[in-house]
Task: inverse folding
C-alpha cells in the first residue's frame, strides 16, 4: 500500500529511472558496481529529478547503505526503487524491475545479478517489493541464463 501511495506522489517515472540507471552505471565502480552518494546526487541532478523525489531517493539510499560508507550497489538500488517509478499493478512494477536488471537489454537477466538482488536484505525485507512478489512466477518475458 505504501509503495502504491508513494508512486502516485512521485513525479519520477520509468523513463526517468532508465535515464538515472544510465547515469549511475556510468559512474559505478566496475569491480563492485558501487556508486557513492555524491555521484548518485550528481546523476539525479543531470536528469533533473524533482527536488522532492530526489529527497526520497536520497533517504532510500541511506536505507540501502548497509555499511554506512555512503556507497551502494547502483543497479540493485535502482531495481529495488523501481516500483516508485511505475504506476500500475504489481506485475507491471515487477516487469519494470526486471527490465532495469537486464543491463544489455537481451531479455536475459544474469543469474548472479538476480541472486544478489534476492539476497539483498533490502529486497527480501519487503521494503519496496511486498514479500508476496517473491513468490510470483518469473516473468515470461525474461529468461534466466545458466551462467
Result:
Amino acid at each position: 500500500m505504501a509503495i502504491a501511495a508513494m508512486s502516485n506522489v512521485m513525479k519520477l517515472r520509468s523513463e526517468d529511472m532508465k535515464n538515472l540507471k544510465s547515469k549511475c552505471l556510468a559512474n559505478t565502480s566496475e569491480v563492485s558496481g558501487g556508486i557513492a552518494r555524491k555521484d548518485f546526487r550528481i546523476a539525479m541532478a543531470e536528469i533533473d529529478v524533482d527536488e522532492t523525489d530526489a529527497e526520497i531517493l536520497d533517504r532510500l539510499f541511506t536505507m540501502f547503505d548497509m555499511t554506512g560508507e555512503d556507497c551502494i550497489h547502483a543497479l540493485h538500488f535502482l531495481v529495488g526503487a523501481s516500483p516508485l517509478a511505475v504506476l500500475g499493478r504489481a506485475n507491471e512494477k515487477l516487469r519494470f524491475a526486471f527490465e532495469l536488471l537486464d543491463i544489455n537489454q537481451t531479455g536475459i537477466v544474469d543469474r548472479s545479478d538476480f541472486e544478489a538482488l534476492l539476497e539483498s536484505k533490502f529486497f527480501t525485507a519487503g521494503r519496496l517489493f511486498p514479500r508476496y512478489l517473491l513468490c510470483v512466477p518469473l516473468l515470461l518475458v525474461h529468461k534466466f541464463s545458466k551462467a
